[in-house]
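Hi everyone, sorry if this is the wrong subforum. Our group has a chain we'd like a structural model of before ordering constructs, and none of us has done structure prediction before. Sequence below.
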Amino acid sequence: MDTGLKKLIKATRNNGAGLNTAVVWLRHLTCDICFCALPVLATILVPAGSHAKNTPVAQPHSNVSDNALNEHRLDLKPKPVELSRISSIGDWRYTLRPSDSLWVIANDYLKPGITWIELVRYNHIADPNTIAPGTTLRFPFGWLKVQPAPAITISVTGEAMLKKSQASQWLPLSLRQYLRVGDTIKTVNGSVLVRFADDSVLRLDSHTTLVFNRLSQFGKSGMTDTGLRLEKGRVSTRVTPVEENGSRYEISTPSAVAAVRGTEFRLQTDGKRTNLEVTEGRVNLSLPSETLDIPAGYATGTTDNGTLSAAARLPLPPSIKQFVSPIVQLPATIAWNPVNGAKQYQYSLFEGQRYNGNLLIRATTKTPQVTLNHLKNGNYTLTMRAITESGIHGIDDMQRLQVKAHAITATLISPKDGQHATDTPAAFRWQPMDSNVQAKLQVAVDQNFSELVIDSGYSYQHNRSLSISLKPNRYYWRVVTQTGGNSIATSEVRTFTVSGKLEKPKIVSINYTGDRANVIWKTITGAESYTMQLSDKKNFSSLLQEQTTGATEVSIRLNPGMTYYLRLRANGSQYYSPSISDITKISVTY
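Answer:
Right subforum, don't worry. Here is the predicted structure as tokens:
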């Protein structure tokens, strides 16, 4: 046996002692693509073809049979690390099609400096001109083109932050945000869903920090190399299956690395210990000194002393008890049957599908029951899982549901139809239908509601007090109700009037020119015209002149030596009471 390989085996059997030496020897013996994540405490591997018939698979919405999860049939005992299991990734394979050209394929997939001639030699092809369709070509991974493959956020809810590579400042994370090597994202009270180049997806729960270490794609091969570091928090992921080995998807934590192909699992860390829950596929969890195969339906993790914890069965998914879809009226209650051994339950509501929609609600409850309210019409996915005393999360029961609620017409209460008031009504009230109905108040000066003076916006309140005063006028009012975001109903239309009194006119100046006096007064809000009255008696028992104008000035001819009395009246619409100015004494002298 090679001396370096002997040293490597000895180092890994000593529970991590000499691990750095082992890594150096490994890199000397094989290509870097296989070992760039080896200096960590644990590795989780899922071999190619992880969906094989003999692999127990637990669908998120179905029960896992006892036979599939029978400890007597599963080998759940840790075993010594087999180096070949970690290092023998092998070649990428490509099957020739009738239209393929060996020269074009080499140009598309091989990195610069490696030619089709080397590919022919590696595959022991005697005559490149006679190679037949259906022939399988082997490409060493070190020969394949590598290019950046940024990830992208496809759902961001709540508060989430992004720190770009080499930056020190955190910025708000946005939807459709590209994520590149070196970037870090963290959630505060929200959730983020990320999609990778191979369509694998990962969701971050709240209070989670994730670093993007590797995001690469191997030319046109479809293979990707994704490396993430979970600093703290909890993630769930669905990794796209691959037909050929070569793609790599790893999530490292301070104590473990999850490297998978074609599976669904959850990973959680507090910075010291790591917990793994496998819900689909089969995962191999490896430490420097031991390894353990974990099938779907089981959980394991690392301990404080750096060893593997005993594999524990995931709680089975709760069975549905009360469920109706479509939901035509909210609130609606959905219930499941209890699960033996569950201390509490966690439910999640997704808009659309679980792995491409927004996470709207995620909460724990003592009983497997949830009441849904205030939802828009549309399609949703609702999951419920049991959680054990030790904190192990079980397999989800998944229900697809549709909300098709219809709006209910509001019944108006006050003000009454045709009500007259000397001021803006204190409040507008209507009958509260139910807590899920949104309503808005509309007030207009025309019965077609084309000239709105109040459009309050939707809320779950069923009364409104106005923060503004309405001018004297006749008004029309109604209430528009909305349910499910797109079902609208409109109430009957009522009228009310607001009356008021015009401000008293105030003369600004009187200018005399010869026998004429030019009187100017202040504009009165709401006044449509002004009436000037002139008399030689202070009590205006008789009028010498009366003139109505829309202007705010008037010219009056006076007889010299006489004394006159003048007053102004402001005239408004039928909703205004007129007002009269103070009496002004005027005269013309030579």
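For your construct planning: The chain has five helices and 47 strands. The two ends are 135 Å apart (CA to CA).
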